[in-house]
Amino acid sequence: MIQNSVVETARLTIRPFEFADAAGLVAILADPQVSRFVGDGQALSGDDAALWVTNSRANLARYGYGTGAVIERSSGQLIGWAGFARPADGPEQIIYGLMAAHWRRGFGSEIVRALVDFATSRAIDPVSATVDPSNSASVALLTKHGFRLIERGFGGEADSDLYQRTRE
Question: Where does the sequence pass through the membrane (predicted)?
């Protein structure tokens, strides 16, 4: 269900970031297992997390969507992030990440399916994602949901492949 830029799945709510979420993002990305495939692979500083929340809220105000907090509905806990990034040097793309303790539980599939449905409701086509080619879990998740490899070394970056899914 999508309502006012809130996406709900059976077990998750993806909602706009609140400023208080910055501390949770810092904690999630302090885990090297999580941060290794995000940005420069380093932990996120408090200032960077606050900027991420600010930029995501600005995208929401300007475009009606952005990146938000992934909340496990049963616990109410912030367990990750998901949504749409708008990089200046490339296509709009889905992004997502979860606390390592929540991996291999099907949450990634719920997130990708929900983001694809959201993109369809907003006529975003194609839906793009960039992935480090060594992130086999994310590559498998995207291909499972109909994404195809479009370009290796996207943007001249050896650690970034472009995947896309077009409307069927």
Answer: none
